[in-house]
## 1
Amino acid sequence: MALSKSEQTAWLGQEPKFDDIIQSVTAASKMPKGLIRETQEVAALARKFNHEVVKPMRLELDRKVQENPDYLPHELVKKANEWGLFTLWIPKAFGGKGYNMPSFSFFAEEISSCCTAVANLIGVHYLGVATLMATWNAPVIFRVLNDVLDGEKTGRPCLISLALTEPAAGTDIEDVDLMDKGTISCHAQRVDGGYNVNGEKVFISNGHLSTWHMLFSFAHLEKPSENLVMLAVKTGMKGFSFGRMERKMGQKSCPASELVFRDCHVPDELVCLCPEDAEKLEKGPRKTAMQLIDYIFSASRAAVCAFGAGVARGAYQEALEFASRTNVCGKPLINHEWAQSMLAQMYGNVAVARLAYVESNHANSLRGMYKWLQFKPFFYFLKWMPQKLSRTFIHYLLNRPLGTWMLRKAHCDFQTQDDIDQTSGWASLAKFTGADMGVKNAQMALELMGQAGLRHDHVVEKHLRDARLIQIYEGTNQLNRLNLFKCLIAPSLPPAKMFDE
Amino acid sequence: MTPDEKELLLLEKTALEFARKELAPHRRENDAHPFGPFFSPVLDKAFQLDFFHALPPEEAGGLDQGICAFSVLLESLCREDASLGAILFSNACAQEIMLAAKQAGELKQIAEKFCGVTDCLIAFPAFNNPSEIDHIAQATYKNDGYLISGAVDFLTMGGMARHGLIPARLTHGKTDDFSWFLVDLTDSRVTKSEMILSLGLRGCPAADVVFDHAPARLMGDVGNGAACFKMMSEKMNLAAAAMSCGVMKGSFDEALGYSKNRMQGGKKIIDWTEFQMLLANMALQIEMASLALKSARQKACEKTRGWQNSGLAVAAVIQKEACDVTSAGIQALGGVGYMKDFGQEKRFRDAQQLQALLGLAPLKRINYLRRKMGQRDLSYGKD
C-alpha cells in the first residue's frame, strides 16, 4: 500500500525520528565521492606508517616508558612529523593538506590496531586543532596553525594539546550542568592587554610534547558555565610550566601531563574566546560553552571510538594469528569450534565499533563540525583550489573581524539545538561502544591465548592496557551514557532532567 | 561459630594485617619489577611465617593447614597485592603435584635441607595445563637417570627458585602422556631468560627456561603427569578462586573509600545513583563469589561428592568476575584509577593474569561440563 508523501513524513517524524536513528541513509547521497578516495588514501598511508614506523617501535617504546616513566617519545613524534601527519587534517583554508576529518577515524583505527598510544598521540594533536577551530577565531587559528605548518617544514614538530581536566574536576568540566556545582579552579583574570591565569590542569595528553595548549579557563569561578575563557598558551610562556607526568597503565607512548599556571599572562591576541565574544552569539555564554564542548567532543569521540575499533581489531588479529599457529589439545586452535566462535564474536565487535564511528561522523557531516567542509561545492572548491590562492584570498578574508564573525555565525549560530543533540548523542554512543569493544576484544584475546597473551612481547597484554584508557578519557563511559540519554532520549521526554538527584 | 571457623577467621585477620603492613605500602615499587628491585624482604618474612609450608602435610615438611585455610590465606593477601599470593600458589601447585606423585619425602628433604626461601621454592609453570600443549620438553632415560631437553615457557619463579618442577614427555616411552620432573635450576645445563615482562603479577616473575640434557628426577610414575595435574588442580582451583576473590574485594574497598571523598557536581560521587549502581554491581558480584567460594571450600573440607568440580566451577566463574569487577574498580576512580598512584590498575592487570592460572580459561569451562557429563577433559592426544 503506497503512502502519500505527507503520510510518510508524518510516520517517519514520529519518535524515534527516522533521520535520528540512522545517519548514514541521509548522509550517503550528500557525501562527495572525493571523500571516499581520500579515506582510502589515508587508510593506505596508515598501514604503511604502521609497517615502517609504528610496528618496529611500539613495544620498545612501551617498555622504555615502563622502565623510565619520564621518557618522552621524541623520535616517534619526529617520524610522524616527517610523514606529514600533523598537518594532513588541517583545512586547506588554513594552510594544511585539508583531508576530510571523517577519514581521520579510519586512519586512527589502522594506527590503533597496531598501537593505540601512537593513534592517541596523533589524535590528541587534532583534538587540539579541533578545539582551536571550534572557537572560530581566525587570527589565532592562523597564528597557531602556522607554527604547526612551519614545524613540518623545519623538522621541529609543533603539536597542540587540549588542557581541560582539572585535579578536582574531570566530569564536571565537561557539562555546564555540572560546572557550576563542581570545584573548578583554573582562573583567568581579566587584566590590561589579556588574562592572567592561575590553576592546574591534569591528565593532559601530549602535554610535555606540545608547543601550544588550548586552555579552558574561567573568568569567574563562582559561575564557570557563563565565564568560559579559551586561551592559546605556548610552551615557554612566563608563568606556565609542566608538572609531573602521570604513571599510566598503558598508552605509554602518549604522555599525560600536569600543566601549571602561576600568574601566566596570556595576551589579547591569544584569547580565542572570552565571555564578551560569547555574549555576541545568539545562544549566549552558557549555551555557547556547552555547544563548544559538544562541538569538540562530537568530533573527537568518533575518533576515540575508532581507537576502540582499532585496538579491538589489533587484539583480534593477534588472537587469530596465535590460533592459526598454535596447537591446542592436539589440533590447531583455529580448528576448535569454541575458538572459532570467539574469533567470530571478536570480528563482530570490531565491525560494531567501526559502524558506530562511521555513524557518528555522518552526524557530524550532516549537522556538526564537518557540515560546511563537506558541502559538495565547498569540498571541491577547497580541494582543487591552488594553495597559493588559498593563502592569499582566504587568508585575507578570514584574517579580519569579518572572517571570525562569518565563521562563528555559520558554525555557532546556524547550528540548532537538535543538531547539537544529534551530533553529541551519536558521538557519545560511538565513544562508549568503541571503548567497550576494544576492552572486550583484548580480554577475549587474552582468554584465547592464555599464558602466551600475558607476555609483553606478544602485544595483546599491551592492547588491553591501552584499550582500558579509552573507557575513561574523552568523558568516562558513564558520562557518555548519560550524555546519550540527555541528547537522544530526553529531548522527546519533557519531564526528564539531567544531573538532578 | 565452629572452632574451625574461628581458626579460619583468625588466619584471615592475621594475613590481612600482614598484607596491609608488608604489601600495601610498597605495592607500586614491588610492581615495578623487573625494572625495580624484587621484594625479597617481604618474601623472607612470609617464609619465616611458614606461609610456604602451610599446605603440605607434616610428612612432607608442612603444617597441614589444609586447602581451606590456604585459600583463606591467599584471599587475604590478594586483597592488597596478588603477587605474593601468586608465588605461594605456584609453589603450592608444585608441592601438590609432588604429593600426588607420592613424593612427600622429596618435599620434606627440600624443606629440611635448605633454609632460604629461594632455595626452598619450586618453580612451576602455573599458567599452563601441559595436557593442552603439544610441544613440551623431552626426557630421555640414560645411565640410571633422566635428562631433560627443550624449553619450558613462562616458568613462574623460574629465574629465582633453586628447583623447578616441569612437565616432559619421554622420547622413547610407551606412552604419549607426560610426566613430572624435578630439576635443579642452578645446573649449568639450564639456561634462563631475563624476567619476562608480563601483564600483571610482576612481583611473581616468570622466565623462559631452556634445558640442554639437564639431569632431572622423575616424580611418580612415567606418564602419570596428567593425573597428578588433575589431582593438584582439583584442590588448587579453590586457592585460585580465592585469589581472584581477594583481588575483587581489594578493588571494591578502594573504590568505596575513594567515592566517599571525591566530589562531582557538588556532591560526593557515592551520592549519585549511577555510581551507586556501579558499586552495587561490584558488591553483588563479590557477595556471590564469596558465598560460592565458601560453599566450595566447605564441600572440599567435607569431601562432599563432586567437590572437585565445584572447585573448578568457582574458579572459572570467579576469575572471570574478577576481570569485570576490577575493571569497574578502575572506572569508579575515573582517571586516577588508570594511574599507578592507586591500586586499581594493578588489580585489573592481576585479575586478568589470574584467569590464566592452570590453563586456558575457555577449556576450563568446557572441561567443567565434560566432567559433569562423565567425559574426559579435552587434552592432547585424547580427542
## 2
Amino acid sequence: MEYKNKSTIPVISTYKEHMTDEELEQLALQLRRDVIELTYYSGTKSSHVGGELSSADIMAVLYGAVLRVKPEDPDWDVRDRFIMSKGHCSGVNYAAMAWRGFFQRDKLFNEFNRVGGYLQEHANMELPGIEAPTGSLGMGLSNGCGMAYAARLEHRHILSPYRVYVLLGDGECTEGQTWEGIMLAKQLRLDNLVAIVDYNKYIISASTYEVMDLEPFTKKWEDFGWYVQRVDGHDIPTLRKAFEVANDIDTAPGRPRVIIADTNKGMPISFMMKDAINWHAGHLDDKLYAQCMKELGL
Amino acid sequence: MSEKMRYGCSLKGMRATLSDTLVELGHKDPHMIVVDCETGTATNILDFRDTFGDRYVTMGVAEQSGVSFAFGASRAGLHPVVPLFSAFLTRRACDQIYIQIGYAKANVKMIGCYSGLTTPNTGATHQSVNDIAIMRSLPGMTVVETADPEELRQALLAMWDVTGPVYIRMIRGDIAKYDIQCVPEGHVFRYGKSTVLREGTDISLIGTGLMVSRCLEAADILKEKGYSAEVVNCSALKPFDNETIAASVRKTGRAVTAENHNIIGGTGSAVAECLAEYCPAPMRRVGIMDQYGESGSLEELLPKFGLTTEKVVEAALGLLG
C-alpha cells in the first residue's frame, strides 16, 4: 500500500530500556496523539476513541515498562502475552505496538479501517504481535487463562517463564464469560495472570452504574479469590508500582491478580469527557481534530 | 449374527473408541490437552484425565470459556482437543468458535459428541440437530461425521495432520442391535474424502453417521425388490467431496440423503448444493424434518423422527417408482 497520509505530529518518545516515569508520561501523550491521528485518518474517520484515551496511561506503562517482548521475534516462546480483551480499543494497542517496533509507524495512519488494510478495527491474528482476536467482548480473560495455564504445563520445572496480561473494559465485565474466566483463573491458581480493568465508568448508552452496576467491584474480585489493587489509572508512577506488586510472585502465591484502574473516558479531551456517552466511538472532523490536538499540546 | 445385526455402531464401540484414541494420542503428543466442560463423564473421556492428570482441564459448565481457553492454550503452544456435547459446543460457544477458532485459524480440534437425537433421555435441549449447519458455515472449518468406531478412530488419529480447526461429529450410539462396523476391512479414512461402500446403478443412498448403517440395510431391501443401490458414506461434510458424490449420482441418476440432523443445513443440503452445481438429479432427503427433538428411548425416537431404514427405502422407491 502506498502511504499517502504522512503524520505531521512530532515523535516525542522512542523505546528504550528502563524508562523513567517522566518518559512514560511522554509516551502516554504520544499514544494519545497517535490515537487522535489514527482516528482522523482512518478509513471511516472513526475509532472507539473514548476508551482508547482512557486506557492510554495503562498501555504506556505496559508497553513501555512491563511487557517483555521482542518485536523482531513476535513469536518468541517465552514472551509476555498481552490481550486487548476490550478489543474495540485496538487503536491504542496499534499505536503502542508501532511505537515498540512491531510495524512501521506510517501504517497507523494509512491502514486502519481500510479495505485490504493491515489494521482491523478489531485486531486479528494476521498482525504479528497480536495474541488473540477480540472484539466480541468477554473472551480475553479465558484466552489469558489458556496461555497462563500453558506456561505452567510447558515449563513444569521452573517458575512461569512469562506473564499474561489482559486488559478488560468495565462494560465488558457485564459479559457472563468474563466471570467464567474470573472463576477459572482462581480455580487453576494462575498467579502468572494479571488482569487490568480500564474502569472508565461508561458503557455505550450511559454510565455503567445506570446500565449494569458493577459495584462493589473491588469486593467482587476479592470474593472470587483474586489479589486486587485499585488505583488511579491515569497516574503513571502508581500504575507502575501496581504492576511491580502484581508481578511479584510473593505478593499472593497461587492467586491471579487484578489491577482495577479508575479512569475517565476520553481523558483528557474536554468535550469527550463532558459527553462520554457520545464518545464511546466517534468521528473526528477537521475542527474536532484540531481541538483535540490543541488540548494535547499541539 | 442375524441379517439385521450386520451394520451400525454401538455405544460401547463409539465411546470407548473416543476414550482409547484420546489416550493413545496423548501418549504420542506431550503437548496435547483435553478441555472439558463437565460432559466428560457422559462422553467417557475420563481415562485421559486419569492417565495425564493436569493435561485434562475442566472449566466447570462453561463452554464459552472452554473454547476461548482452548484458543489461548493453542496460541501458547499446546494442542487442545475439546470433546463436548455437540449441542453445547456449537450452540453455546458459537461466537467463540467463530472468532477465536475459525477466524483465528486456531489449531484446536473439536469433537461433537451425542450429536443428533442420540442423547435420548435428555430431549431437545441436549440434542443437536443443527451443528453441521453451524459448523459448515464457518469459513475454513473442516467438518466430518464418522460412521462407526473404526472411522472415528482413524479420523481422530489423522486430525492433527489437518492444518487449522476440525470438527468431528459422532453419535453416542447405544442401539443394541447395531453392533458392528459399517466400513470395510482396510478402509482408509481421509479428510475431504467420502467413500462408496457398495456399488450400484439405480440410485445413490448417501448417508452420514448412524444413517450410513440404515442406508446399507436399505440397499439390501431394495435389492430384494430388484433395484441396485449404491451406498455412499458421506463423511466429508467440509471440504465436501463433490467428486465422489457427483460421480455416484451421474451413474445412478437419483439420490436419497440420510442424516441424524435437520434436513435443512445438513448432509441433504450439502448434497443438494453439489448436485445443483455438478450433476442436477432428482433427490429426496431423509432426516429430522425441521423439528425439535424430545426425550424418550432411542428405539421410540428414531422411528418417530424418521431416522430408519424404512424411511430410506420409502424415499428411494418414491424416486425409482
